[in-house]
Every structure is written in structure tokens, then in C-alpha cells.
Model the fold of this input.
Amino acid sequence: MGDKDRRASNVTQGASSSRTPTPSRDLPSRSGITALLSGNSGPVKTLPDARAWLDKKGWVLAGEQYDRTKMVNILLTVSLLPKLPSDAAAAIRAVALLIEDNIEDSLSSALSSAIADKLLARIGNLPDELTRAKEFLDATSTKQASTVVQLNETATQHAATTLNLAEISSKLASIDAARLPAPPNGPLF
Done:
């Protein structure tokens, strides 16, 4: 026997002669509840009935939104009515408080999702831009390393050339000045 069949049988087995469900472990299915509501003599059986009844009783004005916070407030207020059986009041309060807790959880989730979405939208291109910047820096670093190697080789060659020039200069200075012919004293022209 499936869950829906079990729930439906619980509704029919748990229903008293006035067609109201008695408490049981399994709640009736939505179709079972609809069947019980249609046989009930109360004024609220459908969504349009619910809106009209709440408006007629002044719980929610025609122009107001039917948000969950408003419905929680209605349920908690109804649970305080003096002629309400204590089990019904406790069930109404329990459901209202669970709905209110769900509202806060939903609000927190929605708020964190909205913040995350906005943040991701703003930094969405950042990984691509960082990748391009890294590639540029890698290429620049490689080029700089190549340039440093070339400069090092050039500096080494320059040092060798400078050393050779110093040796040649030293050798030239050590040549006896007497062996060189004297420069002419007069004008050459």
C-alpha cells in the first residue's frame, strides 16, 4: 500500500460522523483534504473563498498583499481566540511559528543568494583578466630573463675587452720612448 493510499484510508478511517479528521500519525493527502473540505459546511473551501472570507472578517484588506508574514500574524491572532479548543490553538500556533521560521530561513537564503549573485556578476570577468595578466607577466618575465642573460653576456664581453685594452695600454706605455722617433718641432705644412 503506497503513502497516498495509506493517507486516504487514514482520513476515511479517522473521520467521525461529522466528517472531521481525528488526529493520526499520517496526515491526509491533498485530495483527501479537498474531499473533506467540500463536505464541510464552513464558508472557506477554495482559495477564492479564503480571500473573500479574510476580507469580509477584516483580517486582510482588499488592497493588501497576502504575504507569509501577514498570514503568520493572522494565525497567531486566531490562536488567541478564547473559544478555540486548546489543541486547535496549539496546532495553529505551531504551524504559524514554523512558517515564521521558514520565512526567516528563506529570507536569509534569498539575501545571501542575491549578495552572491551581485558579487559574482561584478567579479565575473576577474578570473579571465587575472589569467591574461598572469600570461602577460609570464611572457614579460621570460623576456626580462632573456634580456638579463644577454646583458650579462655583453657585460662579460665588455669586461674582457676592457681588460684587453688595459693590457695593450700597459704594453704601449712600457715601450721605450727613446725608440720612438721624436715628433717634429715645427709646422708640418
User: Anything to note?
Assistant: Residues 141 and 147 are 10 Å apart (CA to CA). The chain has three domains: 1-41, 47-124, 127-169.
